[in-house]
Amino acid sequence: MEKYDRTEQKKLAADGSLFEGYHPSMEAVHRANAGRLRTIIAQFGWPTEELAGPDGAKAAWRIAQHSIGEPDFMRQCRTLLDEFSRRGAVPRWQFAFIDDRIRVYEGKPQRFGTQLCGGPDGLQPYPLEDSTRVDQWRQEAGLPPLDEILADARDHPPPSSKDQRLKDAQEYAWRREAGWLE
Length: 182
Hints:
By secondary structure, this protein is mainly alpha-helical. The protein has one domain (2-178). Helix content is 63%, strand content 4%. It is built from 8 helices and 2 strands. The chain has a two-stranded antiparallel ribbon with strand order 1-2. Helix 1 runs antiparallel to helix 2 and helix 4 runs antiparallel to helix 5 (92-105).
């Protein structure tokens, strides 16, 4: 499932269409993978490292992280990742990423600073819940300081959109349509 996701992502990145909104073929991959992960969870529970190995657990996290068209399922995965990461069955950073992504999609400040967007000086984090505690929370989740990530991200920026305002408006409309915003 992870290979299926990455293959489609590379194909769309190569022709530039990955960076121009949520591509229908990428959405189809994400929905198919989410459906399969949903079945696995129903049968076996969350794919922990003990159950699926480190690579399998990471693949499950990535599939959950990409299930952006299914807010309720993604929230269910966040709850499971919170529970299992607190027990040490999966790395805590997996919870940090999915929690931040959900918060951003819901229009709320993120806690761990894992989600970045374009700003006047290059990539920057979406709004933070508490900028004075972000590095403490990141350390607790096993993540490096935010400044290190921002320096690396600024050295390797994603392709820029032709019209960022249009892209932002399209993303906002998509979030409402998908059920992230009321």
